[in-house]
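Operator note (shift B, R.M.): manual run for Endoglucanase requested after the automated queue skipped it. Running by hand, logging everything below so the morning shift can see what happened. Input copied straight from the record, untouched. If output looks odd, do not overwrite the archive copy; leave it for review.
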Amino acid sequence: MMPPICASIFLFLILLPTAISHDYSDALTKSILFFEGQRSGYLPKEQRMTWRRNSARDDGKNLNVDLTGGYYDAGDNIKFHFPMAFTATMLAWSAVDFGSYMSPEDLRENLVALRWGTDYLLKTVSQLPNRIFVQVGEATPDHQCWERPEDMDTPRTAYAVEAPQPASDLAGEIAAALAAASIAFQQSDPSYAKLLLVNAVKTFEYADSHRGSYTSNQGAKLAVCPFYCSVNGYEDELLWGAAWLRRATGGDSYINYLVDNRQSFNADFNCFEFGWDNKVGGLNVLVAKEVFEKNVAAIAPYKETAERMMCSYFSGSPGSHMTYSPGGLLYKPGSSQLQNTVALSFLLLTYADYLSKSSQQLQCGSLKIHPDSFRRLAKRQVDYILGDNPMKMSYMVGYGDRYPRQIHHRGASSPSIVTHPTPIKCSEGWNIFASPNPDPNVLVGAVIGGPGLDDKFVGGRTNASQTEPTTYINAPFVGLLAYFKANPNFM
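Run finished. Output pasted below as returned.
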């Protein structure tokens, strides 16, 4: 642990105003546009990322179901439903808590991006209570090729879990996504919001009735692992789904569920984490809102755990602490660093909002932390990503003058059908992968994996951990950018 003086200096440094001013409005618009580059299926006439074309038009055919649409999660061409559902949840949370900071156009586009995801998720649960679909595409053959989505000739096998086999983690996350989205669409499309909520309830019932991980099913495990196994278990998704259903419905039964299952489901375990696999950090922050607003004493332990997490961001507080790079980046070890930074920063900003609305500050031992300190730290992370970092590089593609020009993404790195209508086969694509040339297509708005703990960025298509974008990095970044777009001069 740092000595008190060093800790105070370090806290001061990471909360310093950043030196570079940023166009958060431009970054927000681009962060939402990115999702158009990840679309699968038949593209609409309003498609703005025009180097993309229709792809994967027969998805679900092997199971006699329509599974066209949805998102490719990263730089490959597989549709992994578990991280796709988390992406939708975070796009919805961005709209619900930070939509008021967006322009009408940005909010509309955010809801368009969200709906592209939720329309697809409705397909994945369309055969409940008998079957839930978990993935489309075979990861190993896909990863053996470097093909743009429009040329795919690798197997598009769809995988499902059949009742009574468990899928609590997947179904719990889909329930959370649909419930959160039902709130986001309540004003603009109440009939769609109702459809989402009905399916959220149905999906949660399946998740709770058949408890266990979706990767306990051998077929699903072979398809999904090692890419999106639920390493953290399924219990956090059950609580997460219940928390979002409570927020969407106001139903006391979900409060009872959260109270009755908190200890047995280990809501304190790995509670300083938040991402596509571990929902515990986000769960505790989300449930804390109920305590702030309605003083529901029975769920106060969730708020207490959230406060421990919030204190951990600040080095002068007692207990465990988050890790920062020398340049001030909130850092957690993982294959894609910025997914952790962005998701954890989203929670900072969200909790600051809850504190401000209740006219409270956070007490961390002898340290009293004002909500604005949370915002300064979150802003420091956003500015770091946008270019205020030791590399002086934007980690958002298409933002600023200096950003990575070779990213680990098949579609961006390959000439588009517009310029190269002849199919590019599997083996041919590896020549593109190895090319020193910049990407011919700019995947505007994509936030990539980012630098290492030493703030160094090597780059290059071969360096997937640093240069691959994912939908679940961008989704929470939308909410962060929306706030700072509305408050660009916040210091």
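Quick read of the result: The chain has one domain: 38-486. Residues 104-124 form the longest helix (21 residues).
Leaving this for review. - R.M.
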